[in-house]
Structure formats: C-alpha cells, structure tokens
Specification:
The chain is of the alpha+beta class. It folds into two domains: 162 residues, no CATH class; 61 residues, no CATH class. 52% of the residues lie in helices and 14% in strands. The chain is built from eight helices and four strands, in the order βαααβααααβαβ. Strands 1-2 form a two-stranded antiparallel sheet. It has a two-stranded antiparallel ribbon with strand order 3-4. 3% of the residues are buried. The N terminus is likely disordered.
C-alpha cells in the first residue's frame, strides 16, 4: 500500500516534519464523560441487585401495568440515546488518540487511515478480496478488533433497556392477621351458629371483624399471601 508523508512547516528554518501534539482541556472533559458513561450502568445495576429491585410508587406502578407499550417505547428510546452518546464519545476518543499517535510519525499508510475510519464509523471497510492483504503483517488482528468493536456496540441499547425496564415481581410477605377456618372440624356447627347470631352490616367494603372473646368458636390461623408489585 502507498504511504502518505505528512509535512508541516512552521518557518523557513524548520527541518522536522513531525507534528507536536499537546493535551487540551477538551481531552479532560472527554475523559470524564467516558468515565461517567462507563460507570453509571454498573452503579444502577449494583443498586438494583443489592436492594433486590427498586419498588415503584403505586401511581407509577399502575401506569406501567396499564401502558406497557408506552413504557417499552420510552425505555428503548433511552437506550438508543445512550447508544448515540457512547458512539459519539468513542468516535471522538478515537480521533484524539489517532492525532496523538500520528503526530510524531512521518509516514502513515492507507491501512492505518482505513483502520481509524473503521473504528470511528463502526464500519468494516475491507472486502473479501482483501483477505490476502489483511493476512500479511498480522493486519487481520486489527480487522478482528474492528469486528469486535462493531459487535460490542450492539449490546448498548438492549443492555440499557434490560436494566431500566420495570417488571412485576411476586413478593411473599407475612401479613399479621387471622383468617376463619371453614374446613370440616368439630366446631363447624357451633361456628356457623355463632356467625348467624352476629349482626354485621355488609356493604361494598370488607367489614368482617373477628372477635377475640372466648365465646368465638371459629378457629383462626395466621395467613400468608403473595403480594404482586412492580419493580425495576
């Protein structure tokens, strides 16, 4: 492959064709942005895992249960936005790294330019007819890295969607109360007679009351139930 010679002259007495690359303030901001984008998914995952899910409020949980398509749309949109942000940061970091890498060099090949462009655009620029060229000088290793980079970016949107999508979870909890046992037992007849003698006003709301007096012949027991709620 032909090579390109970069020659930049700053004055009549300049004999060095190499560039001088300095770290800029934008590089620090870029680094901080990359650290934030790398850390926040793991932080959210750690919090959710440690707390065994984050319980939603009743209003939000009801909206999620009654509008699953809207929730899936917005969650997927968030994943797509995160994918764009990560892609932009990655592309900018590749550009800044390539500038620093090419600055002290006098000769840059077209392969290096194609490699930099492939990482920035997430595109594989070589064809099947270029396989012999890629097999020389271990260029195929860099080509494999490009494919791995393209494949890795496909995990961003579904990964964010999986972390943020709320799901209904069944939680088993002990309710502190008693229930009437209507199973066949020696006191079944006495229990029914006692219930018939109790004057309980029945409306649309549950108003059953259990007497703790000794005259109550109905057996009671603690109850267990499964409560369904929505978490992320």
């Amino acid at each position: 492959m032909p090579k390109i010679k970069l020659t930049f002259l700053s004055g009549p007495n300049t004999t060095d064709s190499r560039l001088i690359y300095h770290i800029q303030k934008g590089d620090i901001l870029l680094l901080l942005s990359i650290i934030v984008m790398l850390c926040w998914p793991w932080v959210i995952f750690g919090v959710i895992y440690a707390r065994e899910g984050i319980l939603l409020t009743d209003g939000f949980a009801n909206y999620v249960n009654h509008n699953p398509r809207n929730i899936n749309f917005f969650i997927t949109q968030i994943g797509a936005i995160v994918n764009l942000i990560v892609g932009s940061l990655f592309s900018t970091s590749i550009l800044r790294y390539s500038q620093g890498w090419m600055a002290p060099k006098e000769h840059i090949s077209f392969f290096h330019l194609s490699l930099i462009s492939a990482f920035r655009t997430h595109n594989f620029p070589w064809r099947l007819s270029d396989r012999k060229y890629l097999l020389t000088r271990k260029r195929w290793i860099r080509a494999v890295l490009v494919l791995a980079c393209i494949y890795a970016f496909t995990f961003i949107t579904p990964g964010v969607t999986t972390i943020l999508t709320p799901l209904p979870l069944g939680v088993e909890a002990l309710l502190h109360g008693t229930e009437l046992d209507f199973s066949p037992n020696p006191n079944a007849t006495a229990c029914l007679e006692w219930l018939n003698t109790q004057a309980i006003s029945m409306t649309n709301t549950c108003q059953w009351k259990v007497s703790a007096s000794a005259q109550n012949p109905c057996p009671t027991d603690q109850i267990h139930t499964t409560i369904s709620n929505t978490k992320i």
